[in-house]
Design brief:
alpha+beta; eight-stranded mixed β-sheet; 12 helices; six-stranded antiparallel β-sheet; about 575 residues
Length: about 575
């Protein structure tokens, strides 16, 4: 049998080729004890397509799509976590709606109309068809709950005239052929195998047939295959004066599809399109799904599966359900393996009323890449304008927003939070100390400014005082280093293993490290030079690139990450003044 293949990376046997980064942070233990990222959010809502990634770049976008639910309060805090203009919030949120919401439907004139959005609110969409003695006919769509109304005029697609005997225009959407008839026989045909053949093309072609004229009466860009296609006997006769050639059902579908408005007609375009029939206002029905739906662990698991394939650096669940949070924790651990290469940090907190003891007990159950926050800030509900308090979980959304909107090297520690006050405004000093020891990030009142602030942004890591893991800043820098090397070196997979490739790899690694050094000109850098014996020391040293000569490049380097100012000690020696007169 063949021998084992692959290499060992961090105790894992890796077979599939790729770039795999390990970081030795053992030297980051102190002597004494003492940005930018994309956010992934999961939850229920009143609107939005489920089980798909929805991207929002502002709260207004999110509110328009999701319509309602506690998730909007969390998203508001992630987008706008601090009243300080120098502390921006997230720039991009990728949201996955969980649960089993459905679409509303109605059958009108043989067409099945289906709402584009999902959820019970789509039952409020109605359709009315007003058919008169002559074209065009009016189709009105109402969304009364939103005060929306739109009317489409459908009917004539072309205006055609002919001097032939009993002329007709007939469409065969199955055979994809338009035919001109005279005296019951075909006199010319036009094939339309693709959507690129439009009414404008059709009119131009008819104009080339002797004795025939045509102009476009509908949307010139509408494909021919949306025209009415009755059998020859029932096709409207063409007169010597311009006569309408109808496009009713198909034209309505075309307009609804291009308008992207609330409903779509789910009808095969290979079928027979014919006239609409007069219909009184008819409501779509049958939809289910609101933000208050009861969801199961399977729903959360399905949402996390979608998120697994999504590029995010931070994760947040719009729930304080411990079982759901436990699933998210396992998801984060699975994403941080050397093979998954999707490092992300989970932000959590408790519900309103959570005590110090409860928070201190909860955080150690997530002993890893997690920020667990205690103490709720008071804010305004973004939809009702009323004051609300979301507990430590709501504050976790704000700490997340600060992190997502800041450079990797910018600590969240000490940053002010947008708040009308705190759920627990005067926690004891011993309580704060106990929370920090337990791995909880407390929210307190700044005694100087009176603002709510992040006391210290730490993770729930339980392995000791190593700041590379214990502090949120340290973990973010590790993730940035891993992601950076993966990005700049992945293009070399498949290169020849020779001296030239090794030199290129070393050059790429060196350039990445240089670009990661923080300075006034590069505030997003996360490595820092030192200063010893009156001279500056480099931010990184000892870069080596070696190979086994067969399939593997090994890169090692010593780098100095940016730290976080948490403690300042001042020693003042008082000495009596000597006065001699």
């Amino acid at each position: 049998m063949p021998g084992p293949i692959g290499i060992n990376v961090g105790g894992v046997n890796v077979v599939r080729p790729g770039v795999f980064t390990t970081i030795d942070a053992s030297a980051m233990v102190p002597d004494t004890y003492g940005s930018m990222g994309v956010v992934g959010v999961l939850g229920t809502s009143d609107g939005g397509v489920p089980h798909q990634v929805l991207e929002f770049r502002s709260f207004s976008e999110a509110a328009a799509a999701l319509r309602g639910g506690p998730v909007l309060s969390y998203l508001s805090r992630i987008f706008n976590p601090s009243g300080d203009p120098t502390v921006p919030g997230a720039g991009l949120i990728r949201f996955v709606r969980i649960g089993a919401p459905t679409q509303a439907t109605a059958t009108i004139s043989g067409l099945v109309f289906t709402s584009l959005d999902y959820g019970r609110h789509t039952d409020g969409i109605s359709i009315q068809v007003a058919v008169g003695a002559s074209l065009p006919w009016d189709v009105t769509i109402f969304k009364r709950s939103d005060g929306l109304q739109r009317t489409f005029s459908v009917g004539a697609g072309l205006m055609v005239s002919s001097t032939a005997t009993t002329p007709k225009v007939v469409f065969d959407h199955v055979g994809q052929v338009a035919s001109l008839y005279a005296s019951g026989a075909v006199v010319a045909t036009l094939a339309y195998p693709t959507d690129s053949v439009t009414l404008a093309n059709l009119a131009a072609w008819i104009q080339t047939v002797p004795g025939w004229t045509a102009t476009v009466a509908g949307d010139p860009s509408m494909p021919v295959r949306y025209m009415d296609n009755p059998v020859l006997a029932s096709a409207p006769a063409i007169l010597a004066t311009p006569t309408p050639v109808p496009a009713s059902q198909g034209a309505l579908i075309w307009q609804l599809t291009n308008a992207n408005y609330l409903v779509s007609a789910a009808l095969s375009v290979a079928g027979t399109f014919g006239p609409l029939t007069a219909t009184a206002e008819t409501y779509l029905s049958g939809a289910v799904g609101t933000n208050a739906d009861v969801v199961t662990s399977t729903d959360w698991t399905n949402g996390l599966t979608v998120m697994a394939a999504t590029d995010v650096q931070f994760l947040f669940l719009a729930t304080t359900d411990p079982s759901a949070q436990a699933l998210a924790y396992q998801h984060v651990l699975a994403m941080r393996t050397v093979t998954a290469k999707r490092n992300r940090i989970l932000f959590l907190g408790g519900a309103p009323g959570q005590t110090v003891a409860q928070a201190a007990a909860a955080a150690p159950t997530f002993p890893g890449p997690v920020v667990y926050v205690w103490n709720g800030t008071v804010g305004y509900n973004p939809l009702t304008g009323l004051q609300e308090q979301l507990g430590g979980h709501g504050s976790a959304a704000q700490v997340l927003g600060i992190s997502a909107g800041s450079y990797v090297s910018t600590p969240a520690t000490g940053k002010p939070l947008l708040s009308l006050g705190l759920e627990n405004p005067t926690p004891l000093t011993t309580d704060i100390s106990n929370l920090l020891i337990a791995g909880v990030t407390p929210i307190t009142i700044d005694p100087v400014t009176g603002q709510s602030r992040v006391e210290q942004a730490i993770t729930t890591w339980q392995g000791g005082a190593n700041v590379a893991y214990r502090k949120l800043l340290g973990l973010r820098i590790q993730d940035a280093i891993s992601a950076g090397f993966n990005q700049v070196l992945s293009s070399f997979i498949g290169y020849p293993l020779d001296l030239s490739s090794g030199q290129l790899i070393k050059l790429a690694a060196s350039k990445f490290l240089d670009n990661s050094v923080r300075s006034a000109q590069n505030p997003g850098g996360f490595l820092t030079p030192g200063f010893t014996n009156g001279q500056e020391t480099p931010a990184w040293t000892n870069l080596t690139v070696t190979t086994d000569g067969m399939e593997t490049w090994n890169i090692s380097v010593t780098a100095s990450p940016v730290g976080e100012t948490d403690y300042i000690t001042v020693a003042v020696k008082l000495s009596p003044a000597q006065i001699s007169l």
